[in-house]
Amino acid sequence: MSAIEEVNSHFSTFPDFVCQKLQIASESFTFVGLKSLINFPQTMYMVRDPLLTATINNLMVIDVFAGLGQPISVQSETIIAEIMDGMLVAIHDASGMGVSIYPVPQPNSRTISLPTMENSIGGATSSFNENLESNITLLRSHLNCPELQVKAYNFGGNVKSRVILCYMEETIDPILLDNLTQKLESNQDLEIATMKELSLILDFSRYSFVTHYMTYELPQNAVRAIKNGKAVLFIERMPFAIVLPSIFSDLFMSEDDMNHPPIYAWLLRSLRFIGTLTTLILPGLYVALVSVNPDVLRFELAHSIARSRLDVPYPAIIEALLLLCILELIMEAIIRLPNSIGPTITMVGGIVLGQAVVEAKLVSNLLIIILAATTIANAAVVGFQNTYALRLFKYLLLFLSAFLGVLGLLSGLLILCAYVAGIRTLGVPYLQLIRAKGDSYE
Amino acid sequence: MNKSLQVSTTYILTHLGLIFFLYPIDVIDSTNEAHWMPVMLGFLFHILIIAVYMKGLSYFKGQNIVSILLKKSKWLAWIVLLPALLYLLWIMVLAVRAFSEVLSIAILSNTPLWILMMLFLIVPGFMILHGQIGGLLRLSVLLSFLFVTPVIFVMATSFQNIDWHYLFPLWPGDKPLRFVTHFSFYKSLFAYTGGFLLLGFLPSYAEYKPKAIYWGSLLLLPAYLISVYIPVLTLGEETARQLQFPYLFIVDTVEINWLMFDRINVFLLLGLVAFGMFFISVTIWQIQCVIRLGMKDIQPNYLVPGIIALIFAVCLFIPDWQTTDQLFQKNTALRLYVAIVTPVFLLIVGWLHAKKSTYGLKKT
């Protein structure tokens, strides 16, 4: 059985497999490919045109044919692999010569469009999508310089996925680059389809509370990161750029700030910093002041808080946990609901959190205000991966406050600071501003 | 990589945590008038020892004190290192015990003391185990960013009730240096010698400019002066003398209308507690350095909990504040020995080393 027949039988049950004969003058050619990946009419037009021109001008058809694409060996495995990669394979029937042609592909992604998870107020709004090539295009158009390095890696054994690493030679920290390329090169047999698998390949701790990478949909954010000495990864079918490593200032600084006057940029960043502190401290402070250290408060205030809690039958920590639990449930529930049902949850949640719990004397008025402020402040940080850490950390402070009052709150804050100060990603300490500088010791 | 900022903030924070508790009363005890003299003399002493210490260290680029001394002579090294180790353990016990006592008096009167002591050991232990020295250095920057503002705010507001007349006389009548014969003066020196040993333990990657340390200690000078002068200026010298923690008492009397908090000394206390925990973790790290480099290289994961358990056990054996105070007094001689002998010894060793190597160079 010839190679082409083997290929035919391999794809015999595929509805999108096309095997087409083409006769040009006295030569006949066979074209095979998958029409789900290849736009056949256009590709055939593209291929036939040079061959026809060759016959009219009395050139050697076979030479023109060889120049259409990459010559390949005519074996069934090679041909199948090329077809699966989305290439058009052409075979000259008489000589048995095979060529793999880059076809007009079927569109398989969204067009470049607005970001779905990020907002840009003053800058460009076209965002990365699932197509690796168009992501590189976007990156290049924002960072048009010869120093931009783009390296491709192929991951996976049976299921292949491509990963592209971009960085700038002169800005990237050498320790970071060493660690990163070494980890990427030594784990190429593993599959990458999710961020978890990426974390596994890059050897991040499973028990890390703080994200080691940032994901950006907007190319200008990725470009800023590259300029600041970070590395950017693109994974096939992931609609964002993965920026390594994430550092402390990623919580507060966004590329979008650069489009505002500097004073406002700094004010906005300070606001985010205050938001971070608020969301961490406020619930704990409430519990500490109500249950352990009421004497710290001004008498009038302590009195009014105590009066509002008069009918609440349980300690402040239970009260806070109860309401926080409902808040977390609302936030989680709203993510996966269709847009038509989402408002219902908001409304029901609003009723529950608004007046009903207070009137039922389940929680105090002040707590509602505090938890609302906490939730709002939580969203003020840049990047939704960072909000997870803040959401979790506030519970540590809450429990410590219930146990030791304001001292517990302080200890919690110290533990957090120490935790943040001790984290390293690929040899780069987390606690840094702007430039990601690595240090090899420790 | 230059880490002047980190080293400098570490240096400032470790000292700042010690100043406001016992230092004021010791200085007030040591003299009746012109308190700036003991403060300035102590400060000059401090500058002198760090200058000698850093000069000694500069002869050995990028090495820490333990390896420098052990390389020279084992016996001589332990004459310096053993007292230093004992001193570090001792001040750690005192720090843990004193901080817990102060907090217990000020904000947590119902909490058993051992819980507070445990907290003062576990949190610093975590700081060390999670980040090691690199983490600590970075942490110092974050902590100073977060907690220096409230401390400065409280320091500024504590001027509320002062009477500048108490400032005089600026120059004491007779025998201006009489305070040097008073024991309290030597006791007060602990606020200057608490953290200076750290400079000798820093690893080679933490390069710093000596200038940064001098600037850092200069920033500390107002804190020393304020902690002594605010009680004196508010209450007068005679009254201030009666208090156990004069500065904290004064801050407690400050009244700010627009603040929702009644007791602003809580801010000061919490800020100082943060610095105190940082000081304890730095001390644990120094102890760990001496043990790992000088005796046996034990994994920090076992060594640090071991040190913590030891300190905790010792702390449990201290029954009351009197005993703590006695321990603190007994510590004075050892402290002076460590503060004077270590830098001078290091300078001599360094000088000899430099001489030898230039002699060796000439010979070749």
Characterise the protein shown here.
Chain A: Belongs to the GerABKA family. The complex is a heterodimer of chains A (442) and B (364). Chain A is α+β, with helices and mostly antiparallel strands. The N and C termini of chain A lie far apart (63 Å). In chain A, helix 9 packs antiparallel against helix 13. By secondary structure, chain B is mainly alpha-helical. In chain B, 46% of the residues are buried. The interface between A and B is medium-sized, with 29 and 36 residues.
Write the topology of this structure:
The complex is a heterodimer of chains A (442) and B (364).
Chain A lengths: L2 H8 L6 E8 L2 E8 L5 H17 L4 H6 L3 E3 L3 H9 L3 E5 L4 E5 L30 H11 L5 E8 L5 E8 L5 H13 L8 H7 L12 E3 L2 H9 L3 E5 L5 E4 L17 H31 L6 H10 L7 H21 L5 H18 L5 H14 L5 H39 L1 E2 L2 E2 L13
Antiparallel strand pairs in A: 1-2, 2-4, 3-5, 4-5, 6-7, 7-9, 8-10, 9-10, 11-12
Chain B lengths: L3 H16 L3 H8 L5 H23 L6 H8 L1 H33 L6 H45 L25 H6 L1 H4 L4 H4 L8 H26 L1 H4 L5 H8 L11 H31 L4 H17 L4 H43 L1
Helix pairs in contact in B: 1-6, 1-10, 1-13, 2-10, 3-10, 3-15, 4-5, 5-6, 5-13, 5-14, 5-15, 6-13, 6-14, 10-12, 13-14
Give the CATH level 1 class of chain B. Answer: Mainly Alpha
N/C terminus separation of chain B: 33 Å
Beta content of chain A comes to 5-15%
Q: Measure the end-to-end span of chain A.
A: 63 Å
Envelope shape of chain B: globular
